[in-house]
Input
Amino acid sequence: MKDITMKVKEILITEEQIRQKVKELGQKISEDYKDSDDFLMVCILKGGVVFMADLLRQITIPVKIEFMAVSSYGNSTSSSGIVRILKDLDTSIEGKDVLLVEDIVDTGLTLKYITEYLKGRRPRSLRICTMLDKPSRRKVDVEIHYKGFEIPDKFVIGYGLDYAGLYRNLPYIGVLE
Ligand code: XMP
Ligand code: MG
Output
């Protein structure tokens, strides 16, 4: 039988830690956006999908969702900074309060590109929520409004994060063997 946990050297963040953090973030976000007339959460595919699904169910105010898919060229474990939009938003974000939901901010290049790109469409506000942050690898400044955990410079898998497209289904965040 094939076992995906074999690639996990160490569990960095447990299911329980994730659950607790997602709940806290959901409460905070619900409070912060409670007066918004048009709150939109945008999941950055594919990595953000697991976090998005969990976070969304901790939101207690009216919210709509959208998906965006991007890809950065280069080798599989580091980001090149060249971002290609594979799937754009389906609706206009003009005048809306947009919250981007990401799996991880590493160099920051991906989110820098996406935020600049989306700002041109004149949302009322644009913020970032990321599950993980690897601050030691940052190349460009991005303002992160909501964050789950800061992690060291290790390549992580699970909870949406992949290696070569696999391991997104691990329920915790682990370090790749
Ligand atoms: P940047 O460098 O643009 O990169 O902030 C963000 C994207 O790079 C991927 N990434 C990772 N994916 N484990 C992963 O599975 C990691 O440790 C990791 N670090 C960066 C990820 O796709 C993220 O959206
Ligand atoms: Mg990603």
Observations:
- The domain at 15-151 is CATH 3.40.50.2020 (Rossmann fold).
- The beta strands are 8-13, 39-45, 64-72, 83-87, 97-105, 125-133, 146-150, 156-157, 173-176.
- The helical segments are 15-32, 49-56, 109-119.
- Residues 22 and 55 are 6 Å apart (CA to CA).
